[in-house]
Specification:
Blueprint lengths: L1 H23 L2 H14 L9 H21 L3 H25 L16 H20 L11 H24 L15 H4 L10 E10 L2 E5 L12 E11 L21 H5 L4 E8 L9 H13 L4 E6 L2 H10 L7 E3 L2 H7 L5 E6 L2 E7 L10
Parallel strand pairs: 4-5, 5-6
Antiparallel strand pairs: 1-2, 1-3, 4-7, 7-8
């Protein structure tokens, strides 16, 4: 029994630490996933708290993982982990069987696994934690000195909180999204030559004399008024293949014209300063970004502002920030969140390929040569 408990506590602890660190690379990714659940459940009032919940959940995963292995306050942490796993199992089960959530985001954007695999993973993990909870009184700390055990867990807490603080003010350590450095955005917007569309089978359910019957689109009784329509269901039988990674990236100029291709296929360097929700934007180093824009203009390097707000709002801030000479383009807010995790942030393209990305804390000292 002792050996089994040791294996389980180390395995579960490492899994929690790994899961937490993967998500700590991009806390906003989990925030947006939480928002997706809240919107589906009609809990829009929770949107203001999703970032805080995301940071706390990630931190707890990492801290609990260390505590599980070290054995410090094991009874407390194994109880909390059991409750959390039951909740996770509910979430992944809902995502799987409701079909309303495409991906659960349990391991962030860097490691994507299907809702089915995630659900069964959570069932197995819940069973393992339940086993440890049942025998929780047989687990003891690694070290006899509680100060050592406490210090190890405390270091885990610093890691959990510090890493997230850094990412939220800068950018993810490892970018796993389609707009990462090295990608050609325009090319990512094109499907592969061998791409195929998803295939669906549609079933109609009609009722007659209290008896329900399924029909296909070819034989449903649309001409017979004695049959009453009940429901319609479409099931994907063959997934799409080779589709473009980027679907909705679009830049619109002040005249309402789509100039996405012009910007993304331009030769040489191109700067794009992404800013969403101007009222909430961090204006640190504003003088630096203006100096970069001025130098870029002097060297004939295109510099754009991609703003995620209404045209009137963008023009208001364009004037307030004294940036009238810089083209303000309109971009969808959801797309902007994916392109640039900080608000605002700067991207450098060269021949359409992403060369670098900077948060508002890390703008470069000089223009690219």
């Amino acid at each position: 029994m002792k050996v089994i408990l040791w294996i389980l506590r180390v395995a579960v602890g490492l899994l929690f630490i790994f899961s937490g660190l993967v998500k700590a690379n991009d806390p906003l990714g989990l925030t947006y996933k939480m928002n997706e659940f809240f919107e589906v459940w009609g809990m829009s009032f929770m949107l203001n708290y999703s970032l805080g919940l995301s940071v706390c959940m990630i931190a707890f995963e990492i801290i609990a993982g260390f505590a599980m292995i070290v054995g410090n306050y094991f009874r407390l942490y194994v109880t909390l982990m059991l409750l959390l796993n039951i909740f996770f199992t509910f979430l992944t089960g809902y995502a799987l069987y409701s079909g309303k959530i495409k991906e659960c985001g349990c391991f962030g954007d860097c490691i994507k696994i299907s809702n089915t695999a995630t659900f069964y993973k959570d069932i197995a993990l819940t069973a393992a934690v339940l086993f440890m909870w049942i025998f929780r009184y047989r687990v003891f700390p690694i070290f006899n000195k509680s100060a050592i055990n406490f210090t190890i867990v405390l270091l885990g807490a610093f890691l959990a909180i510090g890493s997230q603080w850094w990412v939220l003010h800068h950018l993810p350590y490892h970018d796993c999204l389609p707009y990462k450095v090295g990608n050609n955005i325009w090319e990512k917007m094109k499907p592969e030559p061998w791409a195929t569309e998803a295939e669906f089978v549609t079933t109609f359910v009609y009722e007659k004399n209290g008896v329900k019957q399924e029909f296909t689109p070819e034989n449903y009784p649309w001409k017979d008024p004695s049959w009453k329509f009940v429901s319609r269901e479409s099931v994907e039988v063959k997934p799409a293949t080779g589709q473009s990674e980027i679907h909705d990236f679009s830049l619109t100029d002040e005249d309402g014209d789509d100039i996405t291709e012009d910007v993304l296929t331009a030769k040489g360097y191109v700067y794009i300063w992404f800013i969403r929700e101007p009222t909430k934007a961090h204006l640190d180093n504003m003088d630096k970004i203006k100096a970069l824009a001025k130098t870029a203009a002097e060297r004939k390097i295109p510099f754009y502002v991609a703003c995620s707000a209404g045209r009137d709002i963008c023009e208001t801030y364009q004037e307030a920030w004294n940036m009238k000479d810089i083209p303000f383009l309109i971009i969808d807010g959801t797309v902007s969140k994916t392109v640039m995790r900080t608000n605002p942030g700067l991207m450098l393209l060269r021949d359409g390929v992403v060369q670098n990305k900077w948060s508002y804390k890390d703008y470069p000292a000089d223009i690219a040569q």
